[in-house]
Design brief:
The structure holds two protein chains of two kinds. Chain A is built from ten helices and one strand. The radius of gyration of chain A is 18 Å and the shape is globular. In chain B, the strands form three sheets. In chain B, strands 5-7-8-3-9-10 form a six-stranded mixed β-sheet, with helices on both faces. In chain B, strand 12 and strand 13 form a beta hairpin. In chain B, 43% of the residues are buried. Classes of the chains: A mainly alpha, B alpha/beta. At the A-B interface, strand 1, helix 1, helix 3 and helix 4 of A face helix 2, helix 3 and strand 6 of B. Strand 1 of chain A pairs antiparallel with strand 6 of chain B.
Chain lengths: 249, 321
């Protein structure tokens, strides 16, 4: 009689498959790896970041880390999942012995692996190309918390889009949000350079909060409690809504 | 564990989408070692019935059992015993047959060998080709391989031979026929009568959400009312038709010629009465008088196709349109 495999083996197999397909989609490699690293190098080199006290690279590393998480959670995971729903991939997986939580676990595991590669790339580019060093007073624990909460928030938003909108709409909205958050997320442009009303909106969005937590974890900036709370609330709302509204077909 | 009951069972199953009743009290059972074809025109409710058995949709009434378990609550242990083939396949266009088969093999303990399946389904030449470059028939064979990879005890195949060329259809039918001999229960949906005649132990004809007939293909064909059927060299024009109608009604009151739905131009049958020698003579005489070539004439028992058309009017709808 046929029996299910251990969930661990099933989830591991699907995680590997997710990563293989991500690597095969050129646009995903572009948005998750090339664009964040490119933004870092470009803005650190041309010196057009306005109104910052220290070196541009110190300002840009936390922001491009946030951008990387937005790219892998919101853009990559969101769009890929939306198309998988469109192609019936999710429906077919739902008919297999893989438990539904296993599908979510595999997707999150793949996102975390991808993020580890992104972080490594950004640190390598910052260190080797731009002469960046980690400031004293950095906190690996806070850094890990930033990754986890940022993943929860942006993967949650990506799955929320993928589970409710058509694939084409998810593609458009995710790319649009990526661009908007790049500009208003305190990533390449300090927040206080934004016009007042936009600044007020940007201050409650998760991108700026994630950037602030990354900045604090790397030994800069201010008390991260506020941004951490804001990011946590976004994570709970996005993931909660995604779970409640997700349609598999 | 021994199976006392059927592998698949629907009892009085009702399914509604809004105010539309898609399944209206459907009962059917498939036993281990049996291959049942669920036959019906598009929109008859075939896919809905299969998706309820797969656990994708809840029934609005009646009971649904797969190995005595409700598929909505059976979980991974039950799903491991079911091999599915969905319409559309459910495959990522960038994945390759070999990696998808390996992935699904990893979901099962004691899965079948991926290499053997690839060979058995003739997927060798395209095993490492992205799904988006596969032909419709190759995708169908991959979807079938995916249904088999977990070595399931029951197979639910939705339109397994759709989109295949004749050669692929023949090999796929042989493969499906072989599954049953290994003691599996197989339920497949189709609107291809060739599938039914070559494969099915039993046919269930679904029409507008209700089962209108079931039995072996031979039993079903025998159930059709015998009619005199003939084929003329051309489709009759209205004047010719009226003339023939008068002659036939003249020799056998209540009898009238009609066009045989879905069997091509010139195919006719005499409705209303059983075939008899006077009718045969009347048709032949009319043809001789009018100079219309009679290509074929028979009064034998109906075929499964004729019975199917009689029950569902499936092709008749297309013939009028």
């Amino acid at each position: 009689m046929s029996r299910p495999a251990s969930p661990l083996r099933a989830v591991a197999a699907l995680t590997v498959m997710e990563l293989r397909l991500t690597a095969r989609r050129g646009e995903n490699v572009l948005v998750t790896m090339v664009i964040p690293a490119g933004v870092l190098v470009f803005f650190a080199t041309v010196g057009i970041v306005p109104g910052i006290a220290g070196r541009a690279v110190d300002f840009l590393v936390p922001g491009t880390l946030a951008l990387a998480l937005i790219a892998s959670g919101l853009v990559n995971l969101g769009i890929a999942t939306a198309y998988e729903r469109n192609y019936g991939v999710l429906k077919r997986l739902g008919g297999s012995p893989l438990p539904r939580w296993g599908l979510v676990a595999a997707k999150l595991a793949a996102v975390l692996v991808l993020e580890a590669l992104q972080v490594a790339l950004i640190f390598a580019v910052a260190t080797i190309v731009l002469g960046w060093t980690v400031a004293p007073g950095s906190s690996p624990a806070l850094f890990a918390l930033a990754v986890l909460l940022g993943t929860l928030a942006f993967a949650g938003l990506g799955l929320l889009l993928a589970g409710t909108l058509r694939a084409e709409a998810t593609l458009a909205v995710a790319n649009g949000l990526f661009l908007v958050l790049l500009i208003v997320g305190g990533i390449v442009l300090p927040m206080d350079h934004l016009p007042g009303p936009i600044q007020a909106i940007a201050a409650v969005l998760p991108a700026a909060a994630l950037t602030d937590v990354f900045r604090a974890s790397l030994g800069g900036g201010t008390d991260p409690t506020g941004p951490l709370l804001l990011l946590g609330v976004w994570g709970l709302i996005a993931a909660g809504l995604a779970i409640r509204t997700f349609r598999w077909e | 564990m021994t199976q006392a009951g059927p592998a698949l069972a629907l009892e009085g199953v009702v399914k509604r989408y809004g105010t539309r009743t898609v399944l209206d009290g459907v009962s059917l059972a498939v036993w281990p070692g049996e291959l049942v074809a669920l036959l019906g025109p598009n929109g008859a409710g075939k896919t809905t019935a299969v998706e309820i058995l797969e656990g994708y949709r809840p029934a609005d009434g009646g009971t649904v059992r797969v190995f005595d378990v409700d598929p909505r609550v059976g979980g991974p242990a039950l799903r491991a015993r079911i091999g599915l083939m969905l319409q559309g396949g459910g495959l990522d266009p960038r994945s390759t047959p070999r990696e998808v088969l390996r992935l699904y093999a990893a979901f099962h303990t004691g899965a079948r060998s991926v290499d053997e399946l690839v060979a058995a389904l003739g997927l060798g030449p395209v095993a490492d080709t992205p799904v988006r470059r596969l032909s419709g028939g190759e995708r169908q064979r991959l979807a079938l391989a995916l249904a088999l990879v977990g070595d399931p005890d029951v197979l639910l195949l939705d339109e397994p031979t759709a989109g295949m060329d004749p050669e692929a259809r023949r090999t796929t039918r042989e493969l499906i026929a072989g599954l049953r001999t290994e003691g599996r229960a197989v339920l497949l949906t189709t609107h291809d009568l060739g599938d039914v005649e070559r494969l099915a132990d039993r046919v269930v004809i679904l029409h507008r959400g209700s089962i209108v007939a079931q039995g072996t293909p031979a039993d079903l064909a025998a159930g059709a009312a015998p009619r005199l059927r003939f084929r003329l060299a051309h489709r009759l024009d209205p004047a010719e038709f009226a003339s023939l109608e008068t002659v036939i009604a003249g020799v056998t009151p209540g009898a009238r010629p009609i066009e045989a739905a879905g069997e091509g131009p010139g195919a006719m049958l005499v409705d209303g009465v059983a075939p008899n020698p006077v009718l045969v003579a009347a048709v032949a005489t009319w043809c001789a008088a009018e100079g219309v070539q009679l290509l074929e004439l028979r009064s034998a028992a109906a075929t499964l196709e004729e019975r199917y058309l009689e029950l569902t009017g499936d092709a008749a709808v297309e013939a009028v349109a």
